[in-house]
Amino acid sequence: MNLCLINQKKHCVNCGSGQTIKWGFQGGKKRFRCKNCNKVFYWTNAGSSKNQKLKLFKKWIAGKATLNELARETGKSARTLQRIFKNFMDYPPLPRPEPNSNCHLTIDGTYFKNNFCVLVYYDSRIKKRQYFRVVDQECWYNYMTDLEYLKQVGLNIISITSDGQKGLIKAVRDVFPQAIHQRCIIHIQRMSLIYLTRFPKTEAGITLRYWVRKLHLIENHEQKYYWIAEFEGWCGKYDLFLKERSVSFSGRKWYTHKLLRKTRSLIKNALPNMFHYLDNSNIQKSTNGLESQFSYLKNTLKIHRGLSKENRESFVRWYYYFKGQN
Length: 326
Fold this sequence. Notes:
Layout: E1 6-7, E2 20-26, E3 29-34, E4 40-42, H1 46-61, H2 67-74, H3 78-89, E5 100-112, E6 116-123, E7 128-135, H4 140-152, E8 155-162, H5 166-175, E9 180-183, H6 185-196, H7 203-212, H8 221-237, H9 239-242, E10 245-247, E11 253-255, H10 258-270, H11 288-303, H12 309-325
Parallel strand pairs: 5-8, 8-9
Antiparallel strand pairs: 1-2, 2-3, 3-4, 5-6, 6-7, 10-11
């Protein structure tokens, strides 16, 4: 094409004249020259430029690309990329819950360095992360505040699956007293196996460990009743054994089998809320889905070491925003 053809669509960035012509390429970029003021300029589309910056930022946040890798790819310096990304980091997006009259939430929290925690509320029925918030800690007030907000925006929570954190249990009772609270089967199993140790020394420990390892395999009511019967039989058989006491050097008496007693208490307290998932397929029996998401998030965040606490929090918000677009 003749370079002297007039391009009416491009206006001079200097005088605003529409009398511009194509003026070849330099550095792979198209140039134009104004016939009115002889200004030579590159034409840039502001909207397109912003989209390109957002794509680079997404690669950095969710694509695990480092600043040096993006610098080599784009030809920009790492300092320039930091300046571009700061404009996004200063204004992280907020989560937008979707109203749902039949909501089945999975709730869990995870801690990061620099003393902050992320609480996530995932709707397993519509496969959507309804809400998340960066807080200082898992506690009743934070859970209660979030659940009240979700109630106001139109979520009617039918069931909640959690690891049984005490503050969360109380918050659910206060805000959604009719909601079914499913205890995470995997969390109960994992904590029980920690208390029982890998190689128990007593017959009681060996027997209970065997049945605890069967817990996640329960898929129907028949298996449930059989497991409960075995557990209650174990409690009856070893009741006197678990009451044995030992005398310490100071003369005080302690229960000899403290970890076995601790495991029994854990299962007994959770038993009323362990098998709701058998009655409704929308109720998740564990929080493993959120646990795996936390692992991916932490691994991604480790790549970008050195971020301040404020930027780490902003990183988490952007990460979930981009992951919610997939």
